[in-house]
Amino acid sequence: MAFDMKNSNSRRRPTGPLLMLELNEVNVEDVIKYANSGHLPNFSRFFAENGYSTTSSEAEYDHLEPWIQWVTAHTGRDFAEHGVFRLGDIINLDIPQIWEQLEAQGLTVGAISPMNAKYRLDNPAFFVPDPWTRTDVVAPGVLRRLYEAIAEAVNENANSTFGAKAALNLAVGGLAYARPANYARYLRLVAQAKLRPWAKALFLDLLLSDVFIRCMRAKRPDFASLFLNAGAHIQHHYMYSSGVYEGAFRNPDWYVPKGVDPLLDVYSLYDGILGDVRAAFPNIRIMLATGLHQEPHTELTYYWRLKDHADFLRRIGAHFETVEPRMSRDFLVVCRDAEQAKATQATLEAVGTPDGTALFEVDNRGADLFVMLTWSDDIPGDVVFGAGGRSFGPLRPHVAFVAIKNGRHNGIGYFSDSGAPTGQGTEQFPLKDMPQLVSRALGVAATLP
User: Fold this and answer.
1) What is the rounded CA–CA span in Å between residue 435 and residue 441?
2) What angle is formed at CA 238 by the lines to CA 237 and CA 242, rounded to 5 degrees?
3) Domain 18-292+411-441 carries which CATH code?
4) Cα–Cα distance, 223 to 18 (Å, whole number)
5) 39-71 residue pLDDT tens
6) β-strands 18-23, 330-334: how paired?
7) How does pLDDT run across 269-285, given as a tens digit for each residue?
8) How far is residue 81's CA from residue 203's CA, in Å, rounded to a whole number?
9) Which one of 160, 215, 276, 443 is most buried, by most CB atoms within 10 A?
10) Domain residue limits, the chain
11) Could you give the CA distance from residue 380 to residue 383 in angstroms, rounded to a whole number?
12) What string of DSSP letters covers 68-106?
């Protein structure tokens, strides 16, 4: 049955701690379309009871990256105030985040996979960072090893490589933290992974949700957050195959089989996770937030990723200390000093194809380089690359296909609160107000400096 999600007058206020479910970039308007077609019963119930509001963020498109917006949501500062532009850069700053703000008020806190968040706590219930941000992990040893395995799986996903040690840690950690009620879901996702590559992202988000539920049950913090990214990943790569997409583009059959709807797959997973969380903690207040959302991309764009970053850099004569893969096309090159970084930047920026198309965009941050592989078309086998009159041969063997870009960022996000006293949807509020909303919900004063 169709309903108006925004016009809820529910005044139900659950008691107990507060959970924040961060469903990165999910388009709630699309969720509602699926719900009104008979899908997603838990989302249907949640929004019917609680309504939703929208959030606003940055005006400049380059600032609508999730690793910028979630820093805003966690710190109460917009981009002009926090200045965090790249994934992982939060580790270089000491900006008070929502978890430290609440801990300073005497509350216990926890977090599972918060995007671009730095560990700065004194005594958290648990803190497991996202797979791309290298900061401390506070968790039992099995969970720490599981985190390392998940980080390797995420960062090597395009190459389909996974070490034996990581596989063992994933198996052991999965057995320790996966809930028996979800065993059938895991088995289905494993069976689907060959024909539905996005099933790997679904598997990892389901596992993170089980980790979250088990950690909550064990530690019972006053506030805890769970960040899930499969929705953003799948929207970016497969939105054209959605049953609610109304645009002109279609993904080729070799990319997504006819009749398969990856968005419904991930929204259904999240619907199940929401149901699991509500069943596990029936009296706990839940906030849902998306940070921003995605809308259909309006041109055909391919994403590529280097297969072996270090080998490629050595092949082109670049000098560096270490190289760290980031999300999708991005990677961080750590150099000995600023002089070496400047020389490596020049080497990277000179690499291109014979027609003058550059392969990389480089952001020099002193001794580190944040690099993006910018080639956005198909790569036939006869495309070669080189630099300074020297040819390095065909490009295709050095890169892995990641995706065809389907979704693009929109700065409007969505927010719903099971404990909102007066309903929601009447007005939009800035994303940077999130820490204050959480603080008020927990009955403490906001501590934003």
Assistant:
1) 10
2) 155
3) 3.40.720.10
4) 5
5) 999 999 999 999 999 999 999 999 999 999 999
6) unpaired
7) 999 999 999 999 999 99
8) 36
9) 215
10) 18-292+411-441, 300-405
11) 6
12) HHHHHHHHS--HHHH---STTGGGG--PPPHHHHHHTTT
